[in-house]
């Protein structure tokens, strides 16, 4: 069996199946939806960070673009949810194209510029002067398409697609070429790999994933404000979950979401100050002692982590 | 020396190539030519521009003046990955493997993406290449787990997987033991006999001596001597730049 299929069947599909069945035994569907949402976002971030090394602190910008892409499609075009979701993904891809020149930067400069770009998009959308189009700072209401079950199902479908995509990136030729360009762009170019265009494709794939996540988020909660859609902690969560579990693997970001978002929901809401303390300590500890995440504990012992 | 760029048997022509870094002219009008199956040694003191020369030919830096012509085509600012597909490849002074990928993946990627146009899909298949370069027993290991001599072999394997017509070799011998040196020299000589052109930057002159008797000596970005290695060691200017003025008798 090809390794792409093997990884998807052994790791990806069980996760989707569990989250498809959980609503039958657990009533808090919004919490389950948020888990699915972060599973999608962590893998979307993985697609760009894990495979090219670019860490987009403004990743939430694509998420917000998707949420508003969905909202605008519903409000102004009266688009059915499926079409609005497609347009949400398209909005994020367009934003990704506009931001492509950022890839000329690297390291912290890229992270900061990307963060600033996300803030700029937020400010445009939240601008009261655009109230007729975006409803500005007053938020949108999409009650006409509200459908929690259908939108949860759509989120699961997106998750399945994203997990399959990351499994392909890990083992397929294109993903290996990306990893080669991440390890050493000079020798990758000498091996005939068009490093820059491959990187741009990964960037747009990553934007598309966040845009679809933003779209399905807009559909599911149906009432939201610009500061919810462009909440910086969405970026931070996706980054921390991915780093904690292990970027460039399929199972690492999943483990990161389950463990850390689980922890957040157990103690973060009741005693937020302890949660922030633990989170802060965890990030410092990760960067210092485990930069390649939980997965590297096994990889060091020569175990192949899917 | 002004190379005859119109000569049909010249695969590579480097014509008055200039490369500046700020005010420093790392290459200051260097010229030479190289035909298929030929081995040309490039020697000179540290900082004389040898590696810059290889970096410019392989497309890492665009030239600031002069021209590089390959198989009748002026390369200009052509990107490295396109040069690889034209048939130019190289090794690196310190090996630059794809650290997190396996040895097999390293070579397979180069074969998939960098294979020269018109080289077909046969010939040097990855498995045979790994066996030839004594890497077959390491094929499933991550490249970062290899020692530096093995990483040098991997650099070469990856370059050869693209079926190059011109191979730029940057200090491949440094750090190899005598037995490995002998095998490496024989391997490069065999490549040249098969029609590949080789430009070899090397400090270890005994290694170079086994490969070719044609060398260019560079100093301060220019070629100061072209001829055999034996003649070079008797040339006053060459002796002066290597050993200092007092030794030039």
The outline of chain B comes out as globular
Number of helices of chain B: 9
**Structural class by SSE content of chain A:** mainly alpha
> What's the story with the biggest beta sheet of chain A?
2 strands, antiparallel
Q: Give me the number of helical elements of chain A.
A: 15
Number of domains of chain A: 1
What is the CATH C-level name of the domain at 37-47 and 79-211 and 222-247 in chain B? Alpha Beta
Largest interchain contact: A-B, 19 and 31 residues
CATH superfamily of the domain at 37-47 and 79-211 and 222-247 in chain B: P-loop containing nucleotide triphosphate hydrolases
Radius of gyration of CA atoms of chain B, rounded to a whole number = 18 Å
Oligomer: heterodimer
Strand content of chain A: under 5%
Rg measurement of chain A, Å? 19 Å
Mean pLDDT of chain A: 95
- How many distinct beta strands of chain A? 2
**Unreliable sequence segments of chain A:** none
Q: Name the CATH architecture of the domain at 37-47 and 79-211 and 222-247 in chain B.
A: 3-Layer(aba) Sandwich
Please report the distance between the alpha carbons of the first and last residues of chain A: 14 Å
Molecular structure report:
The complex is a heterodimer of chains A (306) and B (249). Chain A is mainly α. Chain A has one domain. Chain A has helices spanning 3-25, 29-52, 60-77, 81-98, 107-125, 131-134, 148-171, 173-183, 185-190, 195-221, 226-229, 232-245, 251-268, 272-289, 293-299, and strands at 140-141, 223-224. In chain A, strands 1-2 form a two-stranded antiparallel ribbon. In chain A, helix 1 runs antiparallel to helix 7, helix 2 (29-52) packs antiparallel against helix 10 and helix 2 packs across helix 12 (232-245). The radius of gyration of chain A is 19 Å and the shape is globular. The two termini of chain A are 14 Å apart. The model of chain A has no long low-confidence stretch (mean pLDDT 95). Chain B has a domain at 37-47 and 79-211 and 222-247: Rossmann fold (3-Layer(aba) Sandwich), CATH 3.40.50.300.
